[in-house]
Specification:
It is a single chain. The chain is α/β, with parallel strands linked by helices. It has one domain (14-140): 2,3-Dihydroxybiphenyl 1,2-Dioxygenase, domain 1 (Roll), CATH 3.10.180.10. The protein is 24% helix and 36% strand. It contains 3 helices and 8 strands. It has helices at residues 22-32, 73-85, 98-107, and strands spanning 14-18, 36-43, 46-52, 60-64, 90-95, 111-118, 124-129, 135-140. The strands form 2 sheets. It has a 4-stranded mixed β-sheet, with helices on one face. It has a 4-stranded mixed β-sheet with strand order 5-8-7-6, covered by helices on one side. Strand 2 and strand 3 (46-52) form a beta hairpin. The mean pLDDT is 93.
Length: 142
């Protein structure tokens, strides 16, 4: 039997990135990139921070303590190792002003992994590390 109903509309609501220092993450995402803070729940290192762009009220990034849940010690160590290498989590953002974003983030001392580059696949982008060593790629909208 073939389903002939119209599929539901699916949108991106939240994505999760680990943090190791919630205050440093706030400084990076709120103060550096300009995201608004929608929720700040918990205390100390056990804080969940929901941030997002004012122009996308239905889409958010949730910054969470890493390796929460039912993980073995070996799994927690593997996650910590991947985070140290910067290979655990990535987010790709878009902007109309890549040069301005890069200048502002460099002024704030952000770790630049790749300066502005015209990629062979057509994107113009750059790559930073956030305070938890997550990869933050910022592409210019064309």
């Amino acid at each position: 039997m073939t389903d002939t109903t119209t599929p539901a509309t699916i949108t991106i609501h939240n994505t999760f990135l680990p943090h190791t220092d919630p205050d440093a993450s706030l400084a990076f995402y709120r103060d550096g990139l300009g995201f608004e803070v929608r929720l700040d729940v918990g205390q100390g290192a056990m804080r969940w921070l929901t941030i997002g762009s004012a122009t996308q009220p239905d889409t958010a990034i949730v910054l969470t303590p890493p390796a929460m849940g039912d993980y073995s010690d070996a799994e927690k160590a593997a996650i910590a190792s991947m985070m140290e290498k910067g290979s655990y989590a990535t987010v790709i953002l878009a902007t109309d002003d890549l040069d301005g974003v890069v200048s502002r983030m460099k002024d704030r001392g952000a770790t630049v992994i790749q300066d502005i580059t015209d990629q062979p696949w057509g994107a113009r982008d750059c790559v930073f590390r956030d305070p938890a060593n997550n990869t933050v790629r910022v592409q210019e909208r064309r």
